[in-house]
Amino acid sequence: MSLIKKIARAAVVAAACALALGGAGCVQSAPPGEQSSGLLKDVYGDYFTVGTAVQSRTLNKYSDVLPHFNSVTAETEMKWSRLERQQGAYDYSGADAVIRWAEEHDAAVRGHCLVWYKSLPGWVLAEGTTKSQALARMQTHIDETMRRFGDSVYCWDVVNEAIKDSLASWQLESGDIWRTGNISGGDTGDWYAVCGEDYVKQAFIYADEARTKYGLDDVELFYNDYALNSANKREACVQLVEMLREDDIPIDGIGMQGHYKLSDYLADPQKFIEGFEESVKTFTGLGLDVHVTELDIRVYENDGDPPAFDSLPLSVELQQAEMYADIFEVLREYSIPWKDGAGCVTNVTVWGAADDSAAWDTEAHKEYPLLFDEEHRPKEAYYSIISF
Ligand code: GLA
């Protein structure tokens, strides 16, 4: 659909929605021929599950928007630093509240995340920790977490963000792809420096062992990272998968986080979408499922930019909607295997329910990154992804 048609369609749908229902979080009547509820999980029922990130303390605040989603990811409450800040002292309260909510609302829970260089309690890789100590702690954490949540969780991001940023070609060629160095500050740890690439292998081995031990056959194991739409990081991720497969270590899927900036797309929309599609095609082509795990589109170019406007101008909102629409078009296309043995896109998760959840906002500006606005009303982005 052309941009002009999409804009016209969005305007008509928006007007109809306002007239028919009005108010916060309105669920629109869809145009003839489309799913009728307007709920994203229904619109995409034949394609993939649609998720959002949540926090237990704001589940009520977003009760008007959350019915759109049939998958939820705990934004922080399943991370290691939240579950076991002191060794052996577990706190499952937040995670349990998210799971309880999901069960009551027929939503599935994405597990996020078992091993990451951030949100890591200090004791895990405290100074002087040996490789065998580090791996033993990792094994206990993975085993205990997967046992505790069992089949309440349908997949786990086993390892998050193991690949370094700004990879040069020579680094790809020499296999120098791992994030290490320049990792400092509270709740961080340099897994690679202590364990080398074995930490990635062992994380998947331990997760697979826990899956077998606790009879969690349907729980899928994912590698999750950002910027996987870029050529070099895509290639590095393929190397990661090959490394695991050479040792017969199972991996079921790739999580493409998808924290994007509108400017990534506006610079050359076709190039952006081609890169994105190439990654989805490459990963599914390896027989892996793809989840888009943390999708949002920030509208400011640079983190330090001063506030350019007090509210999101329609012109920018429409550009953002166009970007969302193009991304979802690719995702729909790959929701069925494109060749024998290919995996497919089985979940798309946005990183927050509505623009007031403010994950990226700073004092200087707001980012308006999501599908629903600060009043929880559907944005043009929402209309653009339900109109196809
Ligand atoms: C990464 C993590 C998420 C979240 C974001 C920042 O993408 O995977 O859990 O912490 O950073 O909001």
List the helices and strands and how they pair.
Elements: H1 3-20, H2 40-43, E1 49-54, E2 71-74, H3 80-83, H4 93-104, E3 108-116, H5 131-149, E4 153-160, H6 169-174, H7 191-195, H8 198-213, E5 220-225, H9 231-246, E6 253-256, E7 259-261, H10 262-266, H11 269-285, E8 289-298, H12 314-333, E9 345-350, H13 380-386
Parallel strand pairs: 1-2, 1-9, 2-3, 3-4, 4-5, 5-6, 6-8, 7-8, 8-9
Alpha-D-galactopyranose is lined by residues 112, 160, 226, 257, 259, 294, 359.
The sequence of SSEs as H and E is: HHEEHHEHEHHHEHEEHHEHEH
Name the hetero compounds present.
Answer: alpha-D-galactopyranose
How do the strands line up in the largest sheet? 1-2-3-4-5-6-8-9
The fold-level CATH name is: TIM Barrel
Helix content: 25-40%
Q: For the CA atoms, what is the radius of gyration?
A: 21 Å
Structure, explained:
The protein is α/β, with parallel strands linked by helices. Helix content is 38%, strand content 14%. The chain has 13 helices and 9 strands. It has helices spanning 3-20, 40-43, 80-83, 93-104, 131-149, 169-174, 191-195, 198-213, 231-246, 262-266, 269-285, 314-333, 380-386, and strands spanning 49-54, 71-74, 108-116, 153-160, 220-225, 253-256, 259-261, 289-298, 345-350. It has an 8-stranded parallel β-barrel with strand order 1-2-3-4-5-6-8-9, surrounded by 5 helices. Helix 5 links the parallel strand 3 (108-116) and strand 4. Helix 12 (314-333) runs parallel beside helix 13. The longest helix is centred in the last third of the chain and has 20 residues, at 314-333. It binds alpha-D-galactopyranose. Alpha-D-galactopyranose binds at residues 112, 160, 226, 257, 259, 294, 359.
